[in-house]
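Re: that backbone. Tokens:
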């Protein structure tokens, strides 16, 4: 089951506009409720809180249609792991940390703040570790496996047509054998995703790939 408009893929600027409007409403509501509680914030602190949201929106706006690699003509290189999700986790993790710092220090004592930050750090580290484990062992998310010649295919549905898949694998192997990079005995792992969202989770650059 999926929910969402998919605008970041089809119309990124509209998606960013919606995010900006949502952020404005959230900040307005937050400051209004704090004013009702008698919590007075300095202009500097208000700017700091608003800047956290503004940073996220501006960051996404800059790479809405072109990556930083394209903007700054950075040569392509392969790090050996997916960089898309770690970048997002780091970005929003930094934003959450800033919000945690600027908001809580005005409402809680130092002991409570320290405890809250410790819990946040453990959650953040747990999310990063979980993602790294899933990238290293993606087969954990797939219910079925088909081993055929030099291929190991992982997929979800029990109704998957494996005979048709074998024909496609034979065609793929014939094409691979024509390549100078082909080597006998090397096993190829193939993961068949059931949705674009799942594919995005694993893929470093969705715009240049096919799912």
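Recovered sequence:
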């Amino acid at each position: 089951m999926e929910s969402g408009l998919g605008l970041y893929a089809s119309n990124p600027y509209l998606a960013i506009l919606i995010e900006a409007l949502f952020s404005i409403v959230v900040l307005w509501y937050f400051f209004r409720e704090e004013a009702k509680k008698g919590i007075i914030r300095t202009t500097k602190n208000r700017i700091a809180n608003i800047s956290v949201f503004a940073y996220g929106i501006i960051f996404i706006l800059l790479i809405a249609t072109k990556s930083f690699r394209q903007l700054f003509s950075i040569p392509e290189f392969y790090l050996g792991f997916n960089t898309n999700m770690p970048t997002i986790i780091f970005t929003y993790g930094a934003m959450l940390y800033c919000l945690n710092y600027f908001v809580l220090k005005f409402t809680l004592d130092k002991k409570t703040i320290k405890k809250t930050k410790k819990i946040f750090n453990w959650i953040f580290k747990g999310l990063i570790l979980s993602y790294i484990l899933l990238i290293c062992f993606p087969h954990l998310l797939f219910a079925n496996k088909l081993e055929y010649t030099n291929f190991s295919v992982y997929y979800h549905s029990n109704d998957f047509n494996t005979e048709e898949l074998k024909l496609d694998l034979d065609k793929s192997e014939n094409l691979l054998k024509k390549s100078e990079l082909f080597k006998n005995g090397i096993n190829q792992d193939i993961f068949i995703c059931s949705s674009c969202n799942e594919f995005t989770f694993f893929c470093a650059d969705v715009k240049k790939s096919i799912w």
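The chain has three domains: 1-75, 78-136, 140-208. The mean pLDDT is 76.
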